Structure formats: C-alpha cells, structure tokens
Amino acid sequence: MSVLERIQTEVEGHPIVLFMKGTPQFPMCGFSSRAVQALKEAGATELHTVNVLEDPDVRANLPRFSNWPTFPQLFINGELIGGCDITLELFESGELARMISEIQPAKIATP
Asked: Which residues are noted in the entry as glutathione-binding (predicted)?
C-alpha cells in the first residue's frame, strides 16, 4: 500500500481525523495543541489522530494529498477542513461543535 493510500485509508476510516505533530496528550507544537483543545471543547470524543513526527512518509506526502502545506490538518467525514486557524475560527463561531454533533451523537448523562 502506498503512503497516499495509507493516508486515504486513515481519512476514510474515521469520522474525525487530525494529522498533528505529537499526540493529544503530548502535542509537539502549539498549533497542534490548540487544534486538539478546540476539538475537545467542541465535543469531539471520537478523535482519531496521526502523529506525523512518527511517520516521515505521511509527513512528507500529506501536503500533496490534501493540497494543504502545514500541520495540523483536520479532516471531518473524509473532507479537509483545514489547519489550526480554520479549526479555531470554526470553534469560535460554534460551527465546529455543529459539525461534530452531526457525526457524533451527544452523550446524554443519566442521573
């Protein structure tokens, strides 16, 4: 399987995919950290991440795959949403929470 096929499989295999530097627990750049925080605050519980620092082939080829030059890169339902700035803008407008709620049913707390 080529690296572009691997990327495609990741993007299609999960409703929310964030290609980032590091992990949600240990982000390795401020942009990745802010994107993860926005996703969590918007209600993303089913967040799948790919650490591009652990896979140089993905890091080198993802910009070509997505036609987006920087990291992190957020995909929702197989579609590139954008990087950190766009993710934060969507979060601040409430749009990110709406997008997430459409693919991930709200967890109802039972007393």
From this structure: 21, 59, 71, 84-85
